[in-house]
Amino acid sequence: MPDTRTIQAHLAGLIDQAARAAVANGDLPDVALPEPSIDRPKDAANGDFASALPMRLARAAMKPPLEVARAIASHIPADATIDPPEVAPPGFINLRLSNAFIQEQVEHVIREGAAYADLGLGKGKKAQVEFVSANPTGPLHVGNGRGAAIGDALAAVLGAAGYEVSREYYVNDAGTQADTFTDTLYARYQQLFGRSVEIPKDGYPGEYMVDLAKALRERASDGYLRPEGEAAPKELGPAGIELMLQSIRAALDSFGVHYDTWYSERSLYESGGAYDTAMRILREKGLLADREGALWFSSSELGEDKDNVVVRSDGHPTYYASDIAYHWDKFIRRGYDLVVDVWGADHHGHVSRLKTATGAVGADPEALHILLYQLVFLKRSGEAVKLSKRAGELVTLSELISDVGADAAKFFFLLRSPGAQMDFDLDLAVKQSAENPVFYVQYAHARLCSILERAREQGITPDGGDVSLLTQPAELALVREMMRLTDVIEVVASSLEPQQLPHYAMSLANAFHAFNDSFKQANDPSLKVITEDTALSAARLRLVLAARIALARVLGLMGMSAPERM
């Protein structure tokens, strides 16, 4: 019998078989048969799945869609996975899964355990998700946290979908911003020794720069000090950046986000490295031009609106040049089949030209997916939260985690489409009630654990439970919702829409709460999870166990904990 991963393909096969039988029997003319599609109806009253094949065939068959539907439906063979098909206007074939098939999925979930809903979509291909990658010139802020939640969840889903996934943080430790960071840090460092030095006009005013300077003084005393008027020693900037990276790593660790690779931008410029190679490829293709004292990438020849500078007149590569080299390294040197870059929306203008350049250096631009996410606005008591005085910018990620916790922050960051601006309600995120979707979902998991624990205390286990005893509507509805997780993983992996995860988690939690509460509302002692009927209790406990597995899985994909008590 098929499982949740293969049921749609199985049903499509039944429809195709029936359509061919209808042609062979003369009920339909001998016309080309398109691939039958199987979709989930928007209204559950129309069944679990439906096929619109009759409407696609109607013109070629020169028959009304409803007549085509009846002809095909009459030839659908008896099958253990479905009840007899239903035909509905204007020409749908509606299919309802049989109770026996739904009940069997409880066993399937339990057998799969923590790997439940894994797919083979990626076929072991190498995928990289690069996210956050904030300049190491200041602490991570709330916006970076949204990028962290999105990137980490996408990486988890791609892994579940069958890709070999690597998480990467690109460290911008070269270029103008790194130079400005060094100049600012050196000014703060000199101030600690009584020198009257101003930070650069375009420098970083946050108090954290003073803290970094103090940390360097504690480490090296006046070892970084040079005669007044001289530039900072070359080792000061990297030392400060490393301290900043330690802070960034700590914030991400507390957020439960971990990387496989921290990739240094400076490494691109090592002799014979990615930068030299990428520029050589572009020059050999005749796509580099020297003019106006700068080096230009002739991107207009490849369909872009204009050419773009890759080396400025002062001889320094632009960040566009760095990105070209970096993506050559991703695709060509390291051999990733799929690359997902999670960026802030302010990089919108960079998307098209980077995809163009990626193709120019020999990679497949269609394998590069750039996901842009919008700003986050924090609210408390209905009012916007002001900027953090200490950080000199938006509220830091560490401050947010301290306020609401990592789980709540991740859930809320994922709740809306990345392309939509979001208002983060700090009061709602800590509310211990069903109004708070984070509490609602995690409390469902805790209740599932509580039921299993209470049963153990009474000497009842799920072992050996007969799932064919699960016939109540709320029981079957819960299983149906569990079965949707495979669809959700496929959609998120294919469309890069991480918001599907929290919405599915709420639907699954709602199905469990409805299942559990239906017993409470009924004045019937048999309508409980644990009843005097030990066989029925064991069957329902198997359902509870399966639901716990499914809910823990989706929480895990979001990088959240699955609490056993609340």
Give an overview of the whole structure.
With 566 residues, this protein is of the alpha/beta class. Among the domains are: 7-97, Gyrase A, domain 2, CATH 3.30.1360.70; 104-119 and 433-557, Isoleucyl-tRNA Synthetase, Domain 1 (Orthogonal Bundle). Helix content is 47%, strand content 11%. The chain has 19 helices and 14 strands. The chain has helices spanning 7-24, 53-61, 65-73, 99-112, 142-160, 176-191, 208-220, 236-254, 274-284, 319-333, 351-360, 397-404, 406-415, 426-429, 437-457, 473-483, 485-495, 500-521, 534-557, and strands at 49-51, 86-88, 92-95, 126-131, 164-171, 261-264, 288-291, 294-297, 308-311, 338-344, 368-373, 376-380, 383-384, 422-425. A five-stranded parallel β-sheet has the order 6-5-4-10-11, with helices on both faces. Strand 2 (86-88) and strand 3 (92-95) form a beta hairpin. It is globular, with a radius of gyration of 29 Å. The model has no long low-confidence stretch (mean pLDDT 94).
Short description:
Helix content is 47%, strand content 11%.
Instruction: Tell me the overall shape.
Output: globular
Number of discrete helical segments = 19
Number of strands: 14
Helix residue percentage: 40-55%
**Structure classification:** alpha/beta
